[in-house]
Amino acid sequence: MVISNRSTFMSPRQVMVSGATGYVAGWLIKRLLEAGHHVHAAVRDPANKQKLAHLEALQADLPGNITYFAADLLAEGSYAEAMADCEIVFHTASPFSLRVKDAQRELVDPAKLGTRNVLEQAKRTSSVRRVVVTSSYVAVFGDNADFLASGKPFLSEDDWNTTSSLTHQPYSFSKTEAEKEAWKIAQTQDQWRLVTVNPAFVMGPGISPYATSESFNFMTQLADGTFKSGIPNFGVGLVDVREVADAHLGAAFIPEAEGRYLISAENSSFPEIAQILRDQFGDDFPFPKRIIPKGLIWLIGPLIDKTLSRRVLARNVGYPVKIDNRKSIRELGITYRPLEETVTQMFQQLIDEEIVVPS
After folding, report:
1. Does the annotation mark 175 as catalytic?
2. Residue 167 contacts by C-beta under 8 Å, 6 or more apart in sequence?
3. For each successive 10 residues of the chain (359 residues), what is the average pLDDT?
4. Of the residues 30, 112, 175, 327, which is catalytic?
5. Could you list the residue range(s) of the whole structural domain that residue 79 is in?
6. Residue 152's domain is classified under what CATH number?
7. How far is CA 250 from CA 44, 196, 243, in A?
8. Is 71 inside any structural domain?
């Protein structure tokens, strides 16, 4: 596919971003402000200045501008004011947590019903021409063992997660259900085109290092001794948050962009991330130095962390992730930075902000 000249499609527009205080949304809004767009930022509480401080700091130095709107994922019609007169809608809001008591209430409802509320509002808003939904690569597969079961060298945008449920990998199930809901709604209208961005495990420095994200939780655990005795050989696709933001812009402003886009820089693993940190930061932190044997982690894992069920461990530890990112390179023009740069810069930010402290 031949990509049209991007500059002609980046003239200032009014755009809405849901979940505007989030990790991915921070870099997306920065890119939008750099291009001079007027961002309608949908947030839970526009009066919470502390939560908005990092976005306000961006606006001070960039040509675009932000207007804040109150919105609730579960409240029908709550995005009407934020979406008014917007040509592009970015729906990034969705809970990302592996530690939940009620998966339906805490994960599936906000993800699926939130997607429904945003996209149904887009149907009622005549100015909207493109909707970009932040999905995930876990809407493509549920467990790493699915790669082997597929018989394919890589999984691509044509694949769907068929193995997750409310009781097994509920976060992955929530993302799958939400994306399916988005495509279902998109087929009921012809006013706007839907494009989904399906990033792998997102890493890299945040606009705010205090954003709620499992990515930051994981990096903190690597530094605080949680994995000092060893780390499981868990395969994972990784991508820099800045490339995820770029993918959203491509999905929104490249006229030919369509369908789903897997955004993944490298097929990596937890031990590889730990090795990068040891190479870059030495012995200042208790980074894991050994891989815990699968049999041992299968036995003791659920006793240490209730999110690590034996089924999850059996179907993920020791299995590689093999994601095909060629569509994102070919159609969105994404250039992925080296994994070492992503991991190092993210961890250095945590040091600079004293979120992690050398021992």
Report:
1. yes
2. 103
3. 43 92 95 96 94 91 94 93 98 73 86 95 98 97 94 94 94 95 97 98 91 85 91 96 97 97 96 96 93 87 74 93 96 97 96 90
4. 175
5. 14-352
6. 3.40.50.720
7. 27, 11, 10
8. yes
